[in-house]
Structure formats: C-alpha cells, structure tokens
Amino acid sequence: MIKRIILSLLIIAGVSGSAVMGTQALLSDTAALTSNTFSTGTVDLRVSKTGSTFSTVSTAGYTSGVRPGQTKFFDVYLRNVTTDVALSLSGQATDITVTDITKDQVVVSFTPVNTDGSAIVGAPIATATLAQWETLLPYGYPAEYNLAQSGTQRYKMGITMNSGITVDGSAVFNFVFTGTEVVPAQ
C-alpha cells in the first residue's frame, strides 16, 4: 500500500511538473525592426566633346579624313557624376560599317591627358583595332587612372588608318564607354 501511495505521489509530481514546464515554454515575446531599405546605388557616366556640356546617353562624334599611315586625335571628356565611387573604364565599338577596308586596318586609342590637353608623362594608352574593340575591352589603366568620384578626365582619342591601305575606304562606328564601380581595398 505504501508503495502505491509513493507511486501515486510520483505520478502526480511528474504530471504537475510537466504542466508547469509546458506552460512556461508557451510564453514568448516579439520585437520588430521595420522599414529596412537598402539599395545598390547607381553610377552615372557622361560624355562630352568639349568638356562643357555632358550627355547622359550619347553625343555626336567626329567626321574627318584620315590618310593611310596617319593618326588624328580628337578630344573626349568623361565625367563620373557619382559622388561615392570611382569608376574603371571599358570601351566597345558598335554599329561598325567599313567600306573597302577591314576592321583590322583601323586602330582606335584612348590616352588620358591633362585638362589643357597636354600629355601626362607615363600615361597609359588603351589601344586596339576596331575588330578588337567590338568586344567590350577594359582599358587596363593602373588604379591611379580610374575616373575619380565626381571627377572629369580629358582623353585624346586617336584614329589611325593602317599604312598598308591602298584604296579609298571608310569606317563608321559608335564608341560606347562603360564605367564600372571600383571596389575599395579593405
């Protein structure tokens, strides 16, 4: 009989303990962090022939005669309107039409120059044929030639016709500049 009483007390204690623990496990509370907004931001690269009026989309290019073996230079200004990131540059020739010559006979180069147009000693030159520029090519400039945040850089665009051209020919193309965010070193 004492065994039954002890067993009954143990069962009652176990059931009571489970009820108390189960009740405690159901208690909870919540708190919310609301109105979280994150954006990746945007970059804004603009182009100009004069350095005074910059276009967000495109600007009319140049028309000129270039003889075989000759190089002519034209001003191109790029402005990074973005205030918090520097841009590395790439370029691509698009909508290319050549008449009586090949895309490999026309070389296009871009060289950063000082604001007055004078050469920057040791400045790199991004150069390729029209055929090569058909693929988006990074300029491969060292970091100090990235387009700084809120910065403007003047470039000399060189157009060279191969000296081996023996016929009258022409090349018409668009040139698209791409600025890509430079991730700061950590």
What does this structure look like?
With 186 residues, this protein is an alpha+beta fold. 15% of the residues lie in helices and 34% in strands. Strands 1-2-7-4-5 form a five-stranded antiparallel β-sheet. Strands 6-3-8 form a three-stranded antiparallel β-sheet. The protein is elongated and about 120 Å long. 15% of the residues are buried. The mean pLDDT is 86.
Strand order of the largest sheet: 1-2-7-4-5
Q: Structural class given helices, strands, pairing? A: alpha+beta
Question: Helix-strand pattern, N to C?
Answer: HEEEEEHEEE
Distance between the termini: 77 Å
The description of the largest β-sheet is: 5 strands, antiparallel
- Mean pLDDT across residues: 86
Principal-axis shape: elongated
Summarize the amount of helix as a percent range. Answer: 10-25%
Return residue spans where pLDDT drops below 50 for at least 5 consecutive residues: none
Number of helices in the DSSP assignment: 2
Strand content: 25-35%
Query: What multimeric state do the chains show?
Result: single chain
Summarize the entry for a quick read:
The chain has 186 residues and is α+β, with helices and mostly antiparallel strands.
